[in-house]
Design a protein that fits this description.
The chain contains 2 helices and 4 strands. The longest helix has 24 residues.
């Protein structure tokens, strides 16, 4: 599966556009991490646990996008984008979306 943020893939021809493909995950914060994050916000610096959690969330959303694209018959995704939204006070959704295409 070729996945790119570009609208076309160099050296490949898009022979068919499948349409929207997407994958998402919703993650809730952890009380223990919140305490450490609060302490980190006092002294400054990266909140490593949250950085790791968000990276894992993006990977999971991307995996689900890939599964959706394959299920619809695509062998590539162009125009990949990520978005984040707060679902409730302690949970966020990571959404990966793009256009599924068939390339040769």
């Amino acid at each position: 599966m070729i996945i790119t943020t570009a609208e076309k893939i160099e050296g490949k021809n898009i022979t068919r556009t499948i349409g929207l493909v997407k994958g998402s995950t919703i993650r809730a914060r952890h009380v223990g991490r919140d305490i450490m994050a609060g302490l980190r916000s006092i002294v400054g610096g990266e909140i490593i646990d949250y950085t790791k959690m968000m990276a894992e969330s993006r990977e999971q959303a991307l995996q689900r996008l890939t599964e959706d694209a394959e299920a619809q018959g695509a062998n590539a995704v162009v125009g990949l984008r990520f978005t984040t939204s707060m679902v409730m006070s302690n949970a966020s959704e990571i959404l990966a979306y793009g256009t599924g295409v068939v390339v040769e």
